[in-house]
Structures are given as structure tokens and as C-alpha cells.
């Protein structure tokens, strides 16, 4: 059973990201403020839900939210500042886009950096404990999947429509065969047996 609020504040936002472990594509974050007393039966950590259910929940969350936002950070930025910092930056940017400004932030995971002195708490496995973090995880995942489906059209040989940029055997085989694209994260170990890739 997901809990509604962590803090005493009414305007509390939850934030989460998707795509941290991928070899290609952006890291995508979402932040959302849900109305008081919000309930949604199927809502859970996005990893526990099927794609069909996530797609069903997305428009409901968007319609019912007081405010929500989504941010994609490109591979180039991930390579420059590393994936942990990029994940945090994407979540911070989402929080800054919310209107009204939240009075408290709850973050999935154990790392975050302050945004405009808004108090926050990091919650390990927060996406399976709190409604707003679960909602943010669903939005981050659905928006990122959409993005990957779009860039799949540009480079169909990597089958991003299916693997979404994660390090599947098929994705790695395609990197070995076709090399890398502008969407690949060059700071990641793209092929297991090579520390540095020369194409």
C-alpha cells in the first residue's frame, strides 16, 4: 500500500528517474505534486508494472496532478558529469519546472543535492513506498520509452524500440557490428571485453 505524504507539508513533490543503467539514450527524470487524498489503485513502482498499465496510468496522473514535469538529459551531458550527477541534475531541473513550487521534495534513492533550499528526503525504494515517487517513476519511464521509440526510427538496427537502450545481448551485438551513434554514452562500458572502444 503506497503512502500519500512523507512530510507535514501539503505541497510535497516526488521525483524519480529512468534509464540510469542504459548504454544509449537520455536519463529521464520526472517530478510530480499530487493533490491531497489522491488515490490510484494500479499505481506502483514503474518497474513492477507492465508497459500497458504504465501507458494507462500516464494520462490519469497528468490530468490529476497539481503539477508535473519531465526532463531528458542527453548522453553528452551524462559523459561530461557522470550518470549519478546527471540523474540528480535531471531531477533538480524537474523540481524547478513545477508550478507551484513544492515545499518539500521526496526523492527515490539515497543521493540528491539541494534545490533552492527546499527541504528534501531521500528514500531508498521510495517508488514502492510513496504515491508521488511511484507516479514520478511511471512518468519518467513512459516519457523515456517514447523518446527511445522515436530515435529507434533513426537507428533501427539497435532495436531501441524493444531494449530501450539497456545493455541487452542484442544491443551489444549491434554496437559491435555497426559501431556507436550520437545517442550512445561513450563513458559507459559499451562492450564487456573492451575497456576502450575504437571504431
UniProtKB/TrEMBL annotation:
Manganese or magnesium. Binds 1 divalent metal ion per monomer in the absence of substrate. May bind a second metal ion after substrate binding. A divalent metal cation binds at residues 16-17, 108. Pfam families: RNase_HII. GO terms for molecular function: manganese ion binding; RNA binding; RNA-DNA hybrid ribonuclease activity. HAMAP family: RNase_HII_B. Endonuclease that specifically degrades the RNA of RNA-DNA hybrids. This is Ribonuclease HII. It comes from Flavobacterium dankookense. The gene is rnhB.
Amino acid at each position: 500500500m503506497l503512502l500519500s505524504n512523507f512530510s507535514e507539508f501539503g505541497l510535497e513533490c516526488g521525483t524519480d528517474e529512468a534509464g540510469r543503467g542504459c548504454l544509449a539514450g537520455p536519463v529521464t527524470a520526472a517530478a510530480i505534486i499530487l493533490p491531497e487524498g489522491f488515490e490510484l489503485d494500479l499505481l506502483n513502482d514503474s518497474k513492477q508494472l507492465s508497459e500497458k498499465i504504465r501507458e494507462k496510468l500516464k494520462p490519469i496522473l497528468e490530468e490529476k496532478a497539481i503539477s508535473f514535469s519531465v526532463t531528458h538529459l542527453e548522453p553528452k551531458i551524462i559523459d561530461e558529469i557522470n550518470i549519478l550527477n546527471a540523474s540528480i541534475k535531471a531531477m533538480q531541473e524537474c523540481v524547478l519546472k513545477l508550478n507551484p513550487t513544492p515545499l518539500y521534495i521526496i526523492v527515490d534513492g539515497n543521493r540528491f543535492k539541494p534545490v533552492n533550499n527546499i527541504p528534501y528526503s531521500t528514500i531508498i525504494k521510495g517508488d514502492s513506498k510513496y504515491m508521488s515517487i511511484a507516479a514520478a517513476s511511471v512518468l519518467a519511464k513512459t516519457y523515456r520509452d517514447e523518446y527511445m521509440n522515436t530515435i529507434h526510427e533513426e537507428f533501427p538496427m539497435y532495436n531501441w524500440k524493444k531494449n530501450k537502450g539497456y545493455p541487452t545481448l542484442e544491443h551489444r551485438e549491434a554496437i559491435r557490428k555497426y559501431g556507436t551513434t550520437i545517442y550512445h554514452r561513450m563513458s559507459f562500458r559499451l562492450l564487456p571485453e573492451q575497456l576502450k572502444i575504437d571504431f
